[in-house]
Specification:
By secondary structure, the protein is α+β, with helices and mostly antiparallel strands. 44% of the residues lie in helices and 24% in strands. The chain has 7 helices and 7 strands; from the N terminus they run αααββααααβββββ. The chain has a 5-stranded antiparallel β-sheet, with helices on one face. Strands 1-2 form a two-stranded antiparallel sheet. Strand 3 (164-176) and strand 4 form a beta hairpin. Helix 1 (3-19) packs antiparallel against helix 5 and helix 2 (22-31) packs parallel to helix 3. The longest helix has 39 residues, at 99-137.
């Protein structure tokens, strides 16, 4: 998967979390006689999602037939005109429900809301790290370093067969089109004989990457390394 596609996937997920809650949120607001204008906050990234959570949690309202104002759905008298309010079917049903069952339903509702929030946050964080990792792995410095490692007999003997990159890639990489760029990052490779660290310090001018440092550290937390630039 190339970096452009991974960025598209990340932004699609971001847009879904940003804009997706607005349509169901407006429908819920209308059903509860709440103002859907709260979802105008959806112009801010992530705000619509939180408004949706609040809208799911708030109690519904009803409209007084006498003064046409919105009042709590379970109100017996209108607080504005004092007109006696007949119980709605929902309110009557609520009165007939066992308080323990109602409490369990409320707890389940809260649990669903909390789990939904955590899942959305986890999805956004995961897509963010996936996008960053893909950007590193599709870069020229990463590909060239892996190629040099694969062609280095000393490293192959040291790591063993079937070595691969593991864990996160830490550091930074930037590119201004095909003209210029800078990369300073490190990653770990693992073979059957253990883990090692690769460190890269490079810059790009006129589309060509030049390396200040490209080292393979045999052991973690050790200064002993193989200079991959000698074989480049």
């Amino acid at each position: 998967m190339n970096s452009a596609l991974s960025l598209i996937i990340f932004f699609v997920i971001f847009i879904l979390i940003w804009v997706g809650p607005i349509i169901p949120g407006v429908q819920i607001a209308k059903k509860k006689n709440r103002s859907p204008q709260w979802f105008l906050l959806g112009i801010y990234p992530g705000a619509a999602f939180w408004v949706l959570i609040v809208m799911l949690a708030v109690k519904p309202l009803k409209i007084c037939e006498n003064c046409k104002k919105k009042i709590p759905a379970d109100a017996k008298f209108c607080p504005y005109c004092s007109k006696e309010m007949p119980l709605t079917a929902a309110a009557q049903k609520k009165n007939d429900v066992d308080p323990k069952k109602e409490k369990r339903r409320e707890n389940i509702k809260v649990a669903i809301i909390v789990i939904s929030i955590l899942l959305c946050i986890a999805l956004l964080i995961s897509s963010f790290f996936f996008t960053i990792l893909t950007a590193f792995k599709t870069s020229v410095p990463y590909k060239q370093s892996m190629e040099l490692i694969e062609n280095n007999e000393e490293i192959k003997d040291y790591l063993g067969d079937d070595f691969k990159q593991v864990g996160l890639i830490t550091g930074s990489i930037s590119s201004n089109g095909n003209s210029s760029g800078k990369a300073i990052f490190s990653y770990r490779v693992k073979g059957k004989n253990g883990k090692s660290l690769v460190f890269i310090d490079a810059y790009k001018v006129n589309g060509v990457w030049t390396y200040n440092q490209l080292d393979f550290y045999k052991e973690l937390n050790s200064a002993e390394c193989i200079n991959l630039l000698e074989n480049k």
